[in-house]
Amino acid sequence: MNHITLGFLASLIAGCATGIGAIPVLFFRKQNFSHRLKDLLLGFAAGVMLAATAFSLLVPAIDIGGVWIAVIGVIIGALLLDGVDKVIPHEHFEMGREGGSTNLRRIWLFVLAVTIHNFPEGMAVGVSFGTENISNGLTVATAIGLQNIPEGMAVAISLIGVGYNRTAAFGYALLTGLVEPIGGLLGITLVTFMHWFLPLGMALAGGAMLFVISDEVIPETHHRAHSRLSTYALMIGFIVMMTLDNLFG
């Protein structure tokens, strides 16, 4: 199996992890899911994303291309996500509606919000396989899949909270992760056929993920009285991923 196919499959599996995380909503009653649980799950996911960004994307980008290429890539990645965020209409569960005006149903605005979030994650997996260092690629894919599990559950819980039934909540949570293999295929194709793009692409994906973490994930966990617990969950997620990255990366 060549690294392009492997990268695509890895990003597909990582994306499907949102569905794995959403499975519990099919079996438990609505009252079993609280805002506190959702904030803890998102906090943990943010910590995993931060560690994966730092150790699996930005550090290799600096090693390959130097610090200034990494700086440029991070800035470009953040600006691209900022532009997309302002143009594409979407809605967050806590922060409300953003982007342009639209007549889309609210559920599709939620799906678009998570899709914007997930695309750079898939691209990060693809770019990491572009080095043909399978170990590094698998580490990033594991990190993204690991954080997608609590994220998928948090999305499903939020959908139940705004009135969707358990089956619909599970289906939409799974759907939001399926954009990741598209990002993965794009990332690995770019770095495979344009080798010079590799360090820039890793930094760009890292910058996009940093933007998502700071602009969307963390704020979603700080609207209620659970912000301190969410902060500790973020630190635990960061420590878990940092440990896994150094043991197996």
Keywords:
single chain; mainly alpha; two-stranded antiparallel ribbon; globular
In a few lines, what is going on in this structure?
The chain is mostly helical and 249 residues long. It is built from nine helices and two strands. Strands 1-2 form a two-stranded antiparallel sheet.
Task: Give a written overview of the molecule.
This protein is mainly α and 249 residues long. The protein has one domain (3-22, 35-248). The protein contains nine helices and two strands; from the N terminus they run αααββαααααα. It has helices spanning 3-22, 35-65, 67-87, 106-129, 134-161, 166-177, 180-193, 197-220, 227-248; strands at residues 90-92, 96-98. A two-stranded antiparallel sheet has the order 1-2. Strand 1 (90-92) and strand 2 (96-98) form a beta hairpin. Helix 1 runs antiparallel to helix 7, helix 5 (134-161) runs antiparallel to helix 6 (166-177) and helix 5 (134-161) packs antiparallel against helix 9. It is globular, with a radius of gyration of 17 Å. The mean pLDDT is 82.
Blueprint (SSEs and pairs):
Layout: H1 3-22, H2 35-65, H3 67-87, E1 90-92, E2 96-98, H4 106-129, H5 134-161, H6 166-177, H7 180-193, H8 197-220, H9 227-248
Antiparallel strand pairs: 1-2
